[in-house]
Design a protein that fits this description.
Structural class of chain A: mainly alpha
Distance between the termini of chain A: 41 Å
Shape of chain A: globular
Number of helices of chain A: 6
Oligomer: homodimer
Largest sheet of chain A: 2 strands, antiparallel
Order of helices and strands of chain A: HHHHEEHH
Radius of gyration of chain A: 15 Å
Strand content of chain A: 5-15%
DNA sequence: GACAAACGCTTGCAAATTGCAACCAACTTG
DNA sequence: CAAGTTGGTTGCAATTTGCAAGCGTTTGTC
């Protein structure tokens, strides 16, 4: 593995992980308590299933998300944020704040389920 | 113009503006005082000139960046953040902080030139 | 326990975006 | 006035995306 890194800049490296149109939306969904494939699929932005599969596996590989079984004997895997993944809450927050302040017609509908301290109460 | 918006979510809409691998790097460069095409080109990530042209024009269109003439009689246009563009400093900051805290081997090299209050002093 | 629906994907393909290199016109420098 | 330098544009191949269809495995229903 050649370990391709564009530069040592923390901004660039962070963008290499989460700097696309979908990844932070999955983080958002998980922050709001969504855990299953169909729930992510059901978000209003309408992510395609192949993209969803790809992003979930990348997030798991980056240890921002982990798979787990909701029921102990259930064959269906679910996904949730790891502690490292939850450390992205401030990023999510600042993106939401900026959008609300600067983009007309945006509105926060979803509320974070846990770790409420990290996310604003005005959501 | 069909005004394509994926959803009214402020996170999604913000990502539609700045959620790619290059845009925030240009914001970073401008926050550090870079103003000319060649300076953006010279950043270590090595942006291609066609992508650079495209991102600059999108940023200008979104009124996050404005063109201006550095010397009054110079034919060369330069680029700088608008006030709206500078309102992205907290986004830049939180991305940099997260990268520094969570990605091994990243280091902040560039310092913001103005509006230092918005960006950390540890850079 | 047969059947249909739902779930979590995978596959195929066309369209859009990216990365790369070459080229170019306008200006500046020696 | 010739040789860079700057700020792009153009062409093209490779990668990524979006969309729809398919598919094997549960999960509900009767």
């Amino acid at each position: 593995m050649p370990e391709r890194r564009r530069s040592p800049c923390p901004v660039a490296c962070t963008l290499d992980l989460i700097g696309d149109r979908w990844t932070m939306l999955l983080i958002r969904d998980m922050a709001c308590g969504k855990r299953q494939f169909k729930e992510f699929r059901g978000s209003p932005e309408g992510i395609a299933t192949n993209i969803l599969t790809d992003r979930l596996s990348r997030l798991v590989e980056a240890k921002l998300v982990e798979k787990f079984a909701m029921a102990e004997d259930s064959p269906r895997e679910s996904y949730r944020l790891t502690e490292k993944g939850e450390s992205l809450f401030p990023v999510l927050q600042v993106l939401a704040d900026w959008g609300l302040a600067n983009i007309l017609g945006t509105e926060a509908r979803m509320k974070p389920k846990s770790r409420a301290s990290s996310l604003s109460s005005r959501a």
